[in-house]
Amino acid sequence: MKKDFTYEFVEGRPNSLTYEISLEENERLRVLASRGIATLCLNHAGMLTMAKLLVRFAAGRYSKTFHLHLREDFGDTGPDALTIMMYPDEGGIYAGALETSGAKREFHYEFEEPLPNRFSLDYSKEKDEKVEVVLDKESTTLCLNRSAMLTLARALIKIAQGGYSEGFCVHFNKDFDAALPHRFDIVLQSDDKTVG
Known about the structure:
- The chain is α+β, with helices and mostly antiparallel strands.
- The chain has helices spanning 44-59, 146-161, and strands spanning 2-10, 29-34, 37-42, 67-71, 80-86, 98-101, 104-112, 131-135, 140-144, 169-173, 182-188.
- A 4-stranded mixed sheet has the order 2-3-11-10.
- Helix 1 runs antiparallel to helix 2.
């Protein structure tokens, strides 16, 4: 069965990014790090919020040093849980996979509903994704080029809307290349507001 996801947004000012969260949806985001691997734990709503944020970042007119600091559960207080930044040497404006109408933008993703406990990644046509994770004592930084942002957004949408069970985990390697080292995991967390 085909699934469809469309996200419409208005392009913001250069070097400024806003994203929407829904207080009713209870977006969850936790980031853990162990043995050089980052684990991003998100619930369904958190995955869709993160996907929309990545789409906006990929579509924006941002300088090479532009980055986002996300707090736990996408909150506005507390320590940073995750930093997302443009992959080094990535610049310019990327509009691939996005339709433009003035300042209004649209991201459309159609995919086949995956089989239970199966997952496949939908790469860009160019297969030029660059992704790396930098861990230090205090924070986790996810560095992505624009095509990797859109590939990760598609992965998050597919997990959020794909009928997967709590605890479903996908392992990602550097540059989304199976021949390169493992860098981070995405885990589907409970939607239950009482689960920490």
